[in-house]
Amino acid sequence: MTEVHMIKKKKEKSITLDELARMVKNGFVASDENLHREIGGLRKEINDRFDRLEKFTLDDHQRRIHYLEVEVKHLKDIFALK
Predict the structure, then answer these.
(1) Which domain, by its residues, includes 26?
(2) Is 80 left (phi over 0), alpha (psi -120 to 50) or beta?
(3) pTM of this prediction?
(4) Which residues contact 82 (CB under 8 A, 6 or more apart)?
(5) CA nearest 15: which of 24, 2, 5?
(6) How far apart are CA 71 and CA 78, in angstroms?
(7) pLDDT at position 16, please?
(8) Residue 39 lies inside a defined structural domain of this protein
(9) What's the domain count of the chain?
(10) What does the alpha-carbon distance between residue 47 and residue 53 come to, in Å, rounded to a whole number?
């Protein structure tokens, strides 16, 4: 390549500061949108896990309360406390 051709090629690739600023801004906007999408997905996963834990805990408590009620009834029957 000749020097004139290289200079001409450089001129074709030159961009203004405004164009560069716009490209950088668009890059940040795209990154920001991807980040929001990822955070939204993580938030849903976390909520789903908490829902499962809450259901498990409530089910376990209900089972234990029922067991205690049966045991109390059994003790009342043994001691004839009605």
Answers:
(1) 18-78
(2) left
(3) 0.49
(4) 76
(5) 24
(6) 10
(7) 81
(8) yes
(9) 1
(10) 10
Please state, in angstroms and rounded to a whole number, the distance separating the CA atoms of residues 37 and 29: 12
pLDDT of residue 17: 81
CB 82 within 8 A of CB 76: yes
Structure confidence at residue 1 (pLDDT): 54
**Contact 78/72 with Cβ under 8 angstroms?**
no
Rg (CA), the chain: 34
pLDDT digits (tens, 9 = 90+) for 1-59: 555 555 555 556 677 888 878 888 787 777 778 888 888 889 999 999 999 999 999 99
> Which residue is listed with tokens 């309360």?
65
Distance CA 66, CA 44 (A): 33
Query: Residue 27 domain-assigned?
Result: yes
Residue labelled with tokens 């993580």: 42
5 in a structural domain:
no
